[in-house]
Amino acid sequence: MIENDRLKPDLGVNVALFTLVEAEKLANSIWADSLIRSEKLSGTSDIGTGLYVVTMRDTETDQETRVLPGDFVTGDESLLQAAIRVVREVLGVKTKVKLRQIGIFDKADRNVGHRVISIPYWGAIAFEDLRQFLGGRYEVGLELVTSSEFIEVWERENGGLEEFDGVSRFGYRLTPNQKRGHERRTNLDLGKPAILGHDHDDMVFYAWRKLRHAFTGRLDPFRYLGVLPFGSEFRISDLQDFRDVARGEKSQADQFRRSMLQSDMPLLRQTMKVDNTKRGKPARLYELNMDMSPLDFDQSDD
Protein backbone atom coordinates (compact mmCIF):
# COMPACT_ATOMS: atom_id res chain seq x y z
CA MET A 1 0.00 0.00 0.00
CA ILE A 2 1.14 3.57 -0.66
CA GLU A 3 2.13 5.40 2.51
CA ASN A 4 0.19 8.57 3.17
CA ASP A 5 1.08 11.04 5.90
CA ARG A 6 -2.29 12.74 5.73
CA LEU A 7 -4.52 12.28 8.73
CA LYS A 8 -6.86 9.32 8.49
CA PRO A 9 -10.56 10.10 8.84
CA ASP A 10 -12.50 9.22 11.97
CA LEU A 11 -15.41 6.81 11.75
CA GLY A 12 -18.67 7.78 13.40
CA VAL A 13 -22.32 6.80 13.62
CA ASN A 14 -25.45 8.91 13.87
CA VAL A 15 -28.99 7.82 14.69
CA ALA A 16 -32.19 9.22 13.17
CA LEU A 17 -34.78 8.12 15.71
CA PHE A 18 -38.39 8.84 14.71
CA THR A 19 -41.44 9.19 16.94
CA LEU A 20 -45.11 9.96 16.29
CA VAL A 21 -47.20 12.15 18.57
CA GLU A 22 -50.30 14.35 18.44
CA ALA A 23 -49.79 18.08 18.96
CA GLU A 24 -52.02 18.27 22.03
CA LYS A 25 -50.28 15.37 23.73
CA LEU A 26 -46.89 16.82 22.90
CA ALA A 27 -47.81 20.22 24.33
CA ASN A 28 -48.89 18.58 27.59
CA SER A 29 -45.73 16.50 27.85
CA ILE A 30 -42.94 19.01 27.20
CA TRP A 31 -41.67 21.33 29.92
CA ALA A 32 -39.54 23.53 27.63
CA ASP A 33 -40.76 24.84 24.26
CA SER A 34 -37.15 25.11 23.08
CA LEU A 35 -36.96 21.30 22.89
CA ILE A 36 -39.47 21.21 20.02
CA ARG A 37 -38.82 22.81 16.64
CA SER A 38 -41.26 22.97 13.77
CA GLU A 39 -41.88 25.22 10.82
CA LYS A 40 -44.69 27.75 11.27
CA LEU A 41 -47.40 26.88 8.81
CA SER A 42 -49.34 29.54 6.98
CA GLY A 43 -52.93 29.84 8.08
CA THR A 44 -52.74 27.36 10.95
CA SER A 45 -51.58 27.11 14.55
CA ASP A 46 -52.07 23.35 14.92
CA ILE A 47 -49.44 20.87 13.77
CA GLY A 48 -51.85 17.93 14.06
CA THR A 49 -50.33 14.47 14.29
CA GLY A 50 -46.61 14.86 13.70
CA LEU A 51 -43.65 12.67 12.81
CA TYR A 52 -40.58 13.94 14.64
CA VAL A 53 -36.89 13.02 14.66
CA VAL A 54 -34.82 13.15 17.84
CA THR A 55 -32.11 15.82 17.90
CA MET A 56 -29.62 17.25 20.38
CA ARG A 57 -27.42 20.28 20.86
CA ASP A 58 -24.29 20.25 18.69
CA THR A 59 -21.51 19.96 21.28
CA GLU A 60 -18.85 20.79 18.65
CA THR A 61 -20.18 24.20 17.62
CA ASP A 62 -22.74 26.38 19.39
CA GLN A 63 -25.92 25.82 21.36
CA GLU A 64 -28.17 27.07 18.57
CA THR A 65 -27.29 24.28 16.15
CA ARG A 66 -29.22 21.01 16.39
CA VAL A 67 -27.87 17.69 15.12
CA LEU A 68 -28.69 14.00 15.18
CA PRO A 69 -27.30 12.06 18.15
CA GLY A 70 -24.00 10.40 17.32
CA ASP A 71 -20.54 9.37 18.43
CA PHE A 72 -17.30 7.90 17.15
CA VAL A 73 -16.88 4.16 16.74
CA THR A 74 -14.46 2.67 19.24
CA GLY A 75 -11.92 0.02 18.34
CA ASP A 76 -13.77 -2.87 19.96
CA GLU A 77 -17.31 -2.37 18.63
CA SER A 78 -19.19 -2.86 15.38
CA LEU A 79 -21.07 -0.07 13.64
CA LEU A 80 -24.38 -1.41 14.92
CA GLN A 81 -23.03 -1.71 18.47
CA ALA A 82 -21.91 1.91 18.29
CA ALA A 83 -25.38 2.99 17.12
CA ILE A 84 -27.01 1.03 19.95
CA ARG A 85 -24.64 2.72 22.41
CA VAL A 86 -25.69 6.15 21.11
CA VAL A 87 -29.35 5.30 21.76
CA ARG A 88 -28.68 3.89 25.24
CA GLU A 89 -25.88 6.09 26.57
CA VAL A 90 -26.10 9.39 24.69
CA LEU A 91 -29.90 9.56 24.68
CA GLY A 92 -30.43 7.41 27.78
CA VAL A 93 -33.16 5.32 26.11
CA LYS A 94 -33.29 1.80 27.55
CA THR A 95 -36.17 0.57 25.40
CA LYS A 96 -34.96 -1.74 22.62
CA VAL A 97 -35.01 -0.03 19.24
CA LYS A 98 -34.81 -1.81 15.88
CA LEU A 99 -32.05 -0.07 13.95
CA ARG A 100 -31.32 -0.14 10.23
CA GLN A 101 -28.47 1.41 8.29
CA ILE A 102 -29.15 4.43 6.08
CA GLY A 103 -26.00 4.63 3.97
CA ILE A 104 -22.52 6.15 3.94
CA PHE A 105 -21.85 9.88 4.33
CA ASP A 106 -18.23 10.50 3.37
CA LYS A 107 -17.84 13.88 1.70
CA ALA A 108 -14.41 15.27 2.53
CA ASP A 109 -15.78 18.64 3.69
CA ARG A 110 -18.77 17.40 5.73
CA ASN A 111 -17.03 18.30 9.02
CA VAL A 112 -15.00 21.41 9.79
CA GLY A 113 -11.49 20.85 11.13
CA HIS A 114 -11.18 17.10 10.67
CA ARG A 115 -12.65 14.51 8.37
CA VAL A 116 -15.34 12.18 9.69
CA ILE A 117 -17.02 9.38 7.74
CA SER A 118 -20.43 8.64 9.21
CA ILE A 119 -22.58 5.51 8.90
CA PRO A 120 -26.02 6.62 10.15
CA TYR A 121 -28.83 4.34 11.34
CA TRP A 122 -32.54 4.92 11.71
CA GLY A 123 -35.28 3.52 13.92
CA ALA A 124 -38.63 4.32 15.53
CA ILE A 125 -39.71 4.62 19.16
CA ALA A 126 -43.03 5.17 20.90
CA PHE A 127 -43.30 8.68 22.33
CA GLU A 128 -44.18 7.28 25.77
CA ASP A 129 -40.81 5.48 25.82
CA LEU A 130 -38.97 8.63 24.76
CA ARG A 131 -40.42 11.66 26.49
CA GLN A 132 -38.73 11.15 29.87
CA PHE A 133 -35.33 11.44 28.16
CA LEU A 134 -36.01 14.81 26.49
CA GLY A 135 -33.90 17.67 27.82
CA GLY A 136 -30.87 16.89 30.00
CA ARG A 137 -27.21 17.75 29.46
CA TYR A 138 -27.44 17.37 25.67
CA GLU A 139 -30.78 19.21 25.43
CA VAL A 140 -32.38 16.29 23.62
CA GLY A 141 -35.37 17.50 21.64
CA LEU A 142 -37.59 16.86 18.61
CA GLU A 143 -37.55 18.28 15.08
CA LEU A 144 -40.70 18.04 13.00
CA VAL A 145 -40.29 15.96 9.83
CA THR A 146 -43.86 16.10 8.56
CA SER A 147 -47.37 16.28 9.98
CA SER A 148 -51.01 16.02 8.99
CA GLU A 149 -51.26 19.81 8.92
CA PHE A 150 -48.00 20.19 7.00
CA ILE A 151 -49.39 17.88 4.31
CA GLU A 152 -52.68 19.86 4.21
CA VAL A 153 -50.82 23.14 3.75
CA TRP A 154 -48.51 21.64 1.11
CA GLU A 155 -51.54 20.33 -0.80
CA ARG A 156 -53.21 23.74 -0.68
CA GLU A 157 -50.11 25.72 -1.69
CA ASN A 158 -49.07 23.35 -4.49
CA GLY A 159 -52.47 22.63 -6.02
CA GLY A 160 -52.63 19.03 -4.88
CA LEU A 161 -50.40 16.07 -4.01
CA GLU A 162 -50.58 14.10 -7.27
CA GLU A 163 -47.16 15.29 -8.42
CA PHE A 164 -45.47 14.18 -5.21
CA ASP A 165 -44.52 10.78 -3.86
CA GLY A 166 -44.28 11.93 -0.25
CA VAL A 167 -43.51 15.40 1.17
CA SER A 168 -41.64 16.51 4.27
CA ARG A 169 -39.79 19.50 5.71
CA PHE A 170 -36.52 17.82 4.67
CA GLY A 171 -37.46 17.29 1.02
CA TYR A 172 -39.77 15.35 -1.25
CA ARG A 173 -39.85 12.98 -4.20
CA LEU A 174 -41.72 13.62 -7.44
CA THR A 175 -44.11 10.96 -8.69
CA PRO A 176 -42.47 9.20 -11.68
CA ASN A 177 -44.13 9.65 -15.07
CA GLN A 178 -43.26 9.26 -18.75
CA LYS A 179 -41.11 12.39 -18.74
CA ARG A 180 -39.13 11.81 -15.54
CA GLY A 181 -37.95 9.03 -13.30
CA HIS A 182 -37.55 8.91 -9.54
CA GLU A 183 -36.49 12.49 -8.78
CA ARG A 184 -35.75 13.39 -5.17
CA ARG A 185 -35.36 16.97 -3.98
CA THR A 186 -33.69 17.54 -0.62
CA ASN A 187 -33.39 20.91 1.09
CA LEU A 188 -29.83 21.13 -0.22
CA ASP A 189 -31.07 20.52 -3.78
CA LEU A 190 -33.73 23.20 -3.33
CA GLY A 191 -31.29 25.76 -1.91
CA LYS A 192 -33.21 26.03 1.35
CA PRO A 193 -31.58 26.91 4.69
CA ALA A 194 -30.40 23.88 6.61
CA ILE A 195 -32.61 22.67 9.45
CA LEU A 196 -29.90 20.68 11.23
CA GLY A 197 -26.14 21.04 11.37
CA HIS A 198 -23.53 19.32 9.16
CA ASP A 199 -25.23 17.13 6.51
CA HIS A 200 -27.82 15.75 8.91
CA ASP A 201 -30.71 17.12 6.85
CA ASP A 202 -29.81 14.59 4.17
CA MET A 203 -29.53 11.82 6.79
CA VAL A 204 -33.05 12.58 8.00
CA PHE A 205 -34.42 12.74 4.46
CA TYR A 206 -33.02 9.36 3.41
CA ALA A 207 -33.97 7.79 6.74
CA TRP A 208 -37.54 9.06 6.27
CA ARG A 209 -37.64 7.58 2.76
CA LYS A 210 -36.75 4.19 4.27
CA LEU A 211 -39.34 4.63 7.04
CA ARG A 212 -42.02 4.96 4.33
CA HIS A 213 -41.43 1.31 3.36
CA ALA A 214 -43.26 0.28 6.54
CA PHE A 215 -46.50 1.06 4.73
CA THR A 216 -45.74 -0.55 1.40
CA GLY A 217 -48.22 -3.19 0.23
CA ARG A 218 -49.27 -5.75 2.84
CA LEU A 219 -46.19 -5.28 5.00
CA ASP A 220 -46.96 -5.21 8.73
CA PRO A 221 -45.75 -1.71 9.73
CA PHE A 222 -45.46 -2.55 13.42
CA ARG A 223 -43.26 -5.57 12.88
CA TYR A 224 -41.15 -3.73 10.30
CA LEU A 225 -40.57 -0.79 12.64
CA GLY A 226 -40.42 -2.84 15.84
CA VAL A 227 -42.71 -0.43 17.68
CA LEU A 228 -46.36 0.04 18.64
CA PRO A 229 -46.59 3.85 18.61
CA PHE A 230 -50.03 4.13 20.23
CA GLY A 231 -50.34 0.94 22.30
CA SER A 232 -51.82 -2.46 21.53
CA GLU A 233 -55.38 -1.13 21.01
CA PHE A 234 -56.16 1.85 18.80
CA ARG A 235 -58.60 3.55 16.47
CA ILE A 236 -58.32 2.84 12.77
CA SER A 237 -58.03 6.60 12.33
CA ASP A 238 -54.88 6.53 14.53
CA LEU A 239 -53.30 3.99 12.20
CA GLN A 240 -54.35 5.99 9.14
CA ASP A 241 -52.82 9.16 10.62
CA PHE A 242 -49.63 7.20 11.29
CA ARG A 243 -49.58 5.87 7.75
CA ASP A 244 -50.26 9.25 6.12
CA VAL A 245 -47.78 11.19 8.22
CA ALA A 246 -45.06 8.54 7.88
CA ARG A 247 -45.46 8.49 4.09
CA GLY A 248 -46.01 12.24 3.73
CA GLU A 249 -49.24 11.83 1.79
CA LYS A 250 -53.02 11.48 2.21
CA SER A 251 -55.21 8.41 1.93
CA GLN A 252 -58.98 8.02 1.66
CA ALA A 253 -60.56 6.86 4.92
CA ASP A 254 -62.92 4.29 3.38
CA GLN A 255 -60.25 2.82 1.14
CA PHE A 256 -57.77 2.60 4.02
CA ARG A 257 -60.34 0.93 6.27
CA ARG A 258 -61.09 -1.70 3.62
CA SER A 259 -57.42 -2.44 3.10
CA MET A 260 -56.99 -3.10 6.83
CA LEU A 261 -60.13 -5.23 7.36
CA GLN A 262 -61.33 -6.75 4.10
CA SER A 263 -58.87 -9.33 2.84
CA ASP A 264 -58.04 -13.01 3.26
CA MET A 265 -55.58 -12.04 6.01
CA PRO A 266 -56.75 -8.72 7.53
CA LEU A 267 -54.11 -6.83 9.48
CA LEU A 268 -56.57 -5.74 12.21
CA ARG A 269 -59.36 -7.28 14.26
CA GLN A 270 -62.08 -5.45 16.14
CA THR A 271 -62.19 -5.47 19.95
CA MET A 272 -65.23 -4.96 22.16
CA LYS A 273 -63.80 -1.70 23.51
CA VAL A 274 -64.75 1.86 22.60
CA ASP A 275 -62.57 4.96 22.89
CA ASN A 276 -64.29 8.19 23.98
CA THR A 277 -61.19 10.15 25.01
CA LYS A 278 -61.06 12.28 21.85
CA ARG A 279 -63.31 14.96 20.43
CA GLY A 280 -66.27 13.74 18.41
CA LYS A 281 -68.19 10.52 18.72
CA PRO A 282 -66.70 7.43 20.40
CA ALA A 283 -64.86 5.01 18.10
CA ARG A 284 -64.33 1.27 18.18
CA LEU A 285 -60.84 0.08 19.12
CA TYR A 286 -58.87 -2.43 17.06
CA GLU A 287 -55.81 -4.59 17.59
CA LEU A 288 -53.35 -6.47 15.42
CA ASN A 289 -54.72 -9.66 13.95
CA MET A 290 -51.55 -11.48 15.02
CA ASP A 291 -49.28 -11.83 18.02
CA MET A 292 -46.60 -9.17 18.39
CA SER A 293 -43.93 -11.69 19.36
CA PRO A 294 -40.62 -10.41 20.71
CA LEU A 295 -38.26 -9.22 18.00
CA ASP A 296 -34.49 -9.17 17.85
CA PHE A 297 -34.40 -5.38 17.95
CA ASP A 298 -30.62 -5.11 18.20
CA GLN A 299 -29.96 -6.69 14.80
CA SER A 300 -30.11 -4.96 11.46
CA ASP A 301 -32.01 -6.94 8.85
CA ASP A 302 -31.07 -4.85 5.82
Automatic annotation (TrEMBL):
Gene3D superfamilies attached to this UniProt entry: Nucleoside Triphosphate Pyrophosphohydrolase (3.90.79.10), Winged helix-like DNA-binding domain superfamily/Winged helix DNA-binding domain (1.10.10.10)
Pfam families, per database record: WHD_NrtR (PF21906)
Cross-referenced InterPro entries: NUDIX_hydrolase-like_dom_sf, WH-like_DNA-bd_sf, WHD_NrtR
Segments forming a coiled coil: none
Record-annotated NrtR DNA-binding winged helix domain positions: 232-288
Protein name in the entry: Unannotated protein
UniProt organism field: freshwater metagenome
Biological classification of the source: unclassified sequences, metagenomes, ecological metagenomes
